[in-house]
Specification:
This protein has 293 residues and is an alpha/beta fold. It has 2 domains: 197 residues, Rossmann fold (3-Layer(aba) Sandwich); 85 residues, no CATH class. It contains 10 helices and 9 strands. It has a 9-stranded mixed beta sheet, with helices on both faces. Helix 5 links the parallel strand 6 and strand 7. The protein is globular, with a radius of gyration of 19 Å. The mean pLDDT is 95. It binds S-adenosylmethionine. The site of S-adenosylmethionine has 20 residues, from strand 4.
Length: 293
Amino acid sequence: MEINNLFSKKNFILKEGVYIFDKSDNYTSNFGKQWKDFQNVQIDSLNKNNISFKFLNRILFNQMSILNDKTILEIGCGAGRFTEYLVKSSKLCVSVDLSSAIFYNVSKKNKNLILIKSDLMNLDFKTKFDIVICRGVIQHTPNPKETIKKIHSFVDPKGFVFFDVYKMPKLGYFHPKYLIWRPLFKFFFTYESVKKFLIKNISWLLKVKNFVRRLFLNSYFISDIFIPIWSYEGKLELSKKMHEKWSVLDTLDGLFAKYDKPISNKSIVKLLKNNKFKLINNDRKNNIFQTKI
Ligand SMILES: C[S@@+](CC[C@H](N)C(=O)[O-])C[C@H]1O[C@@H](n2cnc3c(N)ncnc32)[C@H](O)[C@@H]1O
């Protein structure tokens, strides 16, 4: 697609193959650092696994072929764990991220990929997309409900939106992640100091975390309360070394994102109804949605 047919405004600069609308990372600077430091960790092709593929398939409600020959808008692409699959099947993939993560996107050199550094709330396209995908992003924006409305403005009436939002924990904001761990870490430590500490100590921290989990009848819920270290034991098939990398990455992601605003499944369904968006599929367990306008 001709670039001039994509954007309504031409207030961008082109740098390293990325169309830059927002020079500043703004509130996403932690993500810029995170995806620079751990750019390869979740990329299937570089790790010879299919973890991100399976995850994408789950986000698409097992309809991978829905991507074939479509125009796709991927919002909050990060280092590109999903982009590498989206570019393969689509006619055109436009991937957006506000942070400098966009410069590390693994599919950067792909011909049918357009990379845009912009706040999704500032995006203004001339065209509508067949598929809009926004995974792992909405809870990290200042006003998640406005974000949900905005992402629906990009989709063609015949197309679909696929998105997720972190689920509100049973304890709400009284969950220790929100009540204790995030405020404590953000007040006393920096991303850099915690990264250094985690890289050095992750091996025994994971052992303690998993021990606590087994002690409490395999409860992820209880072990998460006591130890704010992300563990994938029993969830993902990873070597010890890769498990440690995933843990460091997601611990930093969980603790240092500026915004972390989960929403209950019920509230999202209500929001969709109030805005007359059609709900096609609802994965209540994982808070993933397929919708239409
Ligand atoms: C947790 S990461 C998820 C990356 C990838 N989608 C995944 O699922 O692994 C969230 C991404 O959303 C981006 N993001 C957050 N707010 C944004 C906004 N307003 N506009 C565009 N991107 C945003 C962040 O920079 C970050 O790369």
